[in-house]
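Re: weekly structure request thread

Next one in the queue (744 aa):
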Amino acid sequence: MTVGQIKEAIAGLGHDSIPEGETVLSTWLPAHEARLAPPPAGLHPDVLDFLSRVRIESLYSHQARACELSMAGSNVILSTSTASGKTLAFTLPVLHELATDPDACALFLYPLKALTNDQLDVFSSVQDMSGVQIDAAIYDGDTPRASRPRIRQLSRVILSNPWEIHETLPYHHLWRRFFLNLRYVVIDEAHRYTGVFGSNVAQVIRRLARVASVYGASPRFILASASIPDASRHALALTGHEAVCVDDDGSPAGEKALMVVNAGLDGSGSPAARTRDIVAGLVRRGIKTLCFTRSRRTAELVASLSADRAGGLPISPYRAGYLPAQRRQLEQAFRDGSIRGVVSTNALELGIDIGDLDAVVVSGYPGSVSAFWQQVGRAGRRGGASAAIFVAGGDILDQYLASHTEILTDRVFERATIDLHNPHILAGHALCAASELPLKVDAGDGHLYGIAKSLAGGGLLRETVNGFIYGGSVRPQEAVRLDRIGSKTVSLVDGRTGDLLENLDFDRALREAFVGAVYMHQAATWIVRELDLEALRAVAERQDVDYFTVAHQERQVEMSGDPELTLPGHPGVWSAGLGGLSITHTITHYLKKRYGNVIGSAPLDLPRRILETTGFWIDFPASEIRGVIDLPGAMHALEHTIVGISPIAISCDPDDLAGFSTMMAPHSGAPAIFVYDGYDGGLGLSERAFRDLPRLVAVALDILQGCRCASGCPACCLSPRCGNNNQPMDKQGAITLARQVLGL
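Done, posted below.
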């Protein structure tokens, strides 16, 4: 697309798709030329011949630098923009090694199966054009059992994912040939390994390196990531090895129009409807468009509505849950232009090949600035002009970004968070490691050895002259889930057919699949008729209803030892501390709601859940402020705003932190707000927030004072996740509390 064509399309949206006053930012990001460098000296002739065949005479400067460093023996992390050619950058040094050493092997890890399919096509082409015998193969849960022995014995490049490696390591003896010759481990989309998932994968990578070392292998690591700060630190945390960061992006970029549309201002308008109008308007004007939404249901809805509004032009949804063949068919149709618009969840955020795009629409903040630029970077991949449009909804994060668009334009990227010390994560991987090889303190297993001693007391590990070995009756890999802490899941089945609808983690089942709950599955309503927590099974019946259900949850807090850090605050007004917390969650009843109104309730008898975590608290001695404000409502509102803005303020995922308030804290007897990590053992996020508490409260105050509502709304202090139905709530009181903390 030319700049003129994009400008014409945007002008047209202003006439028929975006109401006057909703566009809060409209700017152009400048184009920049490519910076080129010759291929590194010493590349194998077969690799040079491959480059000649694909008509590549020069590399982008970052590609050449990464290849040169890797060939010289360094571990490397590439941290450059979307579509900057990272695949070629990490493929060249691997291909050089395979061409130089006919026994050499490499392992490529991806967070999505669809990416392995794309990379398999790349290696098939590379083998044909270079003449280097690669025999690349995908080895994951979908690989036929009959094909697996051949892959283990013959393939020199294995394409897989962390889940499969986690399950495969106990059978490393079957992989002897591969491990003996493992020269490279390539980790693509490394920025996705963060939080609980990243912390678990970091332990899987250490277990992989541990097994490889037994076979005499010490593979080099190449990591590819979107732009993140301190990428070398992330590579070290993820792999346990120092890596050189290459972040000086030499790839070209065309001009990009960047717009921010506030569709949730003062609760007016509908973000989904505005997204529909924008997507339809772009497609009608011949603009090939990809739209990202935050949920599967929204993707399906917006795609359907957009196609109707676009006069029947082909616009399709795309999301996880589709069969692989369906996804591949949609990807191919989007590449060849049969489909001109796709509405997707973040399933298409990563490097799946869908061809060149003219525009990306991001409906709702995707959770991080890094993810936002990863998504909008999908447009303009061939250097032409493109458009990126962010449609802000009505919640706290979206509204804050709509009024602080510099957060997006300045590209202040979030750190990826990996916790190498969470005891709940370490315990599971200690069991896994001991089932693979004996744990020895003098064999690089020191990070697991301490917790292994405690597990030995429970009989799961046994100490021998060779180290700790696993003594349990079931494979520990089955109990360790990489995407969460805790292993139990509940199967939700169709009561009429017995078919499995989906699997829910245990805590979610308590909140959403209790008897009488209305459960949404594939945009349809189901009524839960049975929940058997011993059999880990819930039964639901399909039924159309016009109400929804919300579980009411009560929380009690106990201190786990003395505070680790304290802030004196203002004596008699407020003080704060950080330390271990034990949070007891009890679901007491549920509400039936129609259009926001309560139409009924029923009691629930469900087991209590105890979360051992880390958090901070702010005490407000009641003697100083009682009678001035509605204290319970004020604390509740301020806690909602602090938790709601945390993903931007301290760089974390929206579900990483939780909070509540109480009129009698156990440590002080005073009214208090608690904010804590939402995972057993914590991930250090509440500590990060506590160390920057004044700035966090200042941001919350900015949001509360800047919102035009009178008594609270989703843009400032109401939360759809609130287990108390957002009651009580006192926005003005929250402003008073925040000002007290800041000394204003």
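The longest strand covers residues 548-570. The CA atoms of residues 23 and 261 lie 4 Å apart.
Next request, please.
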